[in-house]
Amino acid sequence: MNQSLEKNIVLNNGIEMPILGLGIYAPGEKNEVRRAVNWAIEAGYRLIDTASVYKNEEEVGQGIKDSGISRDELFITSKVWDDQQGYESTLRAFEQSLERLQTDYLDLYLVHWPVSETRRETWLALEKLYSDKRVRAIGVSNYYESHLDELLGYASVTPAVNQFEQSPFLYLPDLLSYCKEKGIQPEGYAPLVRGLQHKNSVLMAVAENHGKSTYQVLIRWALQHGIVTIPKSTNQERIKANFDVWDFAITDAEMDQLNKLDAGIRVANDPRDY
Length: 274
What we know:
By secondary structure, the chain is an alpha/beta fold. The protein has helices at residues 30-43, 57-67, 87-101, 119-131, 145-154, 173-182, 201-210, 214-224, 236-243, 252-259; strands at residues 8-10, 16-18, 21-23, 47-49, 75-80, 108-111, 138-141, 161-165, 185-189, 228-229.
């Protein structure tokens, strides 16, 4: 049983990345995102994950500015959206993200989805940004084994991170093993399954054993699998609660029970359709 967890992991190029962060897919009011980022930084989060398609990079940038925190204390991720992909258009999209976020570099830049027509050129653009030191690490999102096999056939740089949907209800041990074997850090989004499973009886029993919420158990489950995790919220109390997962450990027997909850439940698209 993993009693304690490091709050940072080391990527394949030697840089450190926080293992728990704030995901910011929040289509609501703009000020909501700005406040959420500020609250998260106050609560101890240092990883902030956004994307151009979320249309909130400006608010993320403002929230960071409001917090008064030094830029080098944060780990900021953004992603290039499907209709921005391709070599030159990815380079342009990156510059636009920097401008909106009010920063001159990103810590991590990801290909958001593996669009078949453009993913090679898009990856080569990310390699260019990386070699020019505009971004500290590059990676992909929603890539399954077949996408990664293809990418590794032409990549000069192995992706540092692969971000994909992951929870006990969509447990992908083969993909996790593949990433580990290739030195790619798995990062999971939608760890809380948008609240759809929070009353699951197995989940509730584990939560009760530890005096925690089912949401905290879902986050801790991912962390104990070595998955960087980015629960999304714009609610101040929930943001704080989602970060309060360092003082308990799920037992091996409980982890096994949770692993068996897999039912292929998704809240996002299936990458195999790409």
